[in-house]
Amino acid sequence: MFQNISQSIADRSIHIGWIGLGVMGKPMAQHLLDAGYHLRVYSRTPSKAKPLLDRGASFGITAADVAKHCDVVFTMVGYPADVDEVYFGAKGIFKSTRPQQILIDMTTTQPFLAQRIAMQAQRCGCVSLDIPVSGGDVGAREGKLSMMVGGDEDAFRNVGPLLSHFGTNMVYQGGAGAGQHAKMCNQIVIAGTMIGTCEAMMYGYKAGLDMHVVLQSIASGAAGCWTLNNLVPRMLDRNFEPGFFVDHFIKDMQIALEESRRMGLKLEGLQLAHQLYEKTSQLGYGKKGTHALLLALEQLARNDRSQTI
Amino acid sequence: MFQNISQSIADRSIHIGWIGLGVMGKPMAQHLLDAGYHLRVYSRTPSKAKPLLDRGASFGITAADVAKHCDVVFTMVGYPADVDEVYFGAKGIFKSTRPQQILIDMTTTQPFLAQRIAMQAQRCGCVSLDIPVSGGDVGAREGKLSMMVGGDEDAFRNVGPLLSHFGTNMVYQGGAGAGQHAKMCNQIVIAGTMIGTCEAMMYGYKAGLDMHVVLQSIASGAAGCWTLNNLVPRMLDRNFEPGFFVDHFIKDMQIALEESRRMGLKLEGLQLAHQLYEKTSQLGYGKKGTHALLLALEQLARNDRSQTI
Known about the structure:
homodimer
């Protein structure tokens, strides 16, 4: 079904749309420009498009306009409401889709929303993929993202050469929404490792340990995790810049909680993580990195008269 | 102060005591025998000593008897009450300690108990070390344990050649109890990674994902952890044999909770993990591996009429 697209990817004649030029979307779009593709971009904040336009991209005045001119359309926006808007809104993608077009949402969003997009795409004779990523802004810049793929498998195989500019780990997880579900698994694990790690830091500080030294004992054993290796050094430097925003992590955990409730599942660890991160955001750390949970735990302990930190 | 010991370790004339021949203690004692040291062993269950006696070890009829004949005494028993008994009991080590002896407790136990042992040792003119380990029975058998060292630093440097038979990662964490505190940090991180991982498994199963495939997407990214790499494959095989016993993990978490309460610290994630593991044990999985938390979560979800798993 997608031979034409496969061929036009190979000879760079394909027209690619890119919607969303935030901290993730912009470097990803740039990788495609670097690789020699025609790009038409759209951003709610047009100034964000300038560096891409300077390098040859064209600007779409709406998401619908991007969809009208492109064979493959990528979206990488912020919240589920933004995804809803760019697909189903009055100036959205579905106002001007055409048969055989491939729509690829890389935002982390609701599995249910990915399924709605897939159904609407089918009605329009085109197909959709949900491909949330992990690896953060660094992964996006370095082209080292991990991609979790849901939706039309044939379409996925055909756009693989495009995706390869974003990273090498791309795994097909199943039908529409399965990419989002896999991403939720990822975030649920992280919720646990973040709580465990930050609480261990609280304990170790209070016990008078040198956490640099503790790290030498525990990082390579059964407690070993990405968080210990990558975020604890930043905590030790009191550097809480993102990385991955607290507020975006809260959004992801809300999706996972809604989805698990919908499936009749109670996940107490995830609930606790969500509560603690809500408090972290309320304390003003929403735009800090997820490891700012430590800052919040410290502040909550100081304010709690039953604790003596 | 410990030159004599250092020399007698080098020429194998040192007499080493070993108390506790369980799943950890026995292989560790065997490493010392293999290395050509004189060993005097004690176990509450004398039959456990047989393989060691067959290979040249002598048997002490009590912990006090072992201490009486040895320059360095290792203890590796089960619960804090057992440690208390072998050190302070009527037939315990402190009934027959002598100056310059080095007492090394490798049990995971209370930091406070390690400090009590250190104080009593000082009164007797000898010294103590608390060196809990991580790496489990496999690490013990393969000589690949990670050792977290608290207590007399000079003594630690001098017994290093003995410890090197148990593993290469040995890090001095501070005075008496600091080894135990570092181990608690280790267990607190694990409590988080276990909840996150098992809840992600629950979510993924319910969402209809193939968790083998999800693992390919998430194991190498920000969710990556020892638990994902080592325990999820066992969960996927429905193999819940230990590894590390649920009941021993509960003991460790109880110590960490008591100690954090004593320090005026509230660790909600650790509290939740402790509650969930208590339920896991109550369901009959106390002698299963820690990843049997998944079994418990599954069973609790089935029994909870508000959940629909």
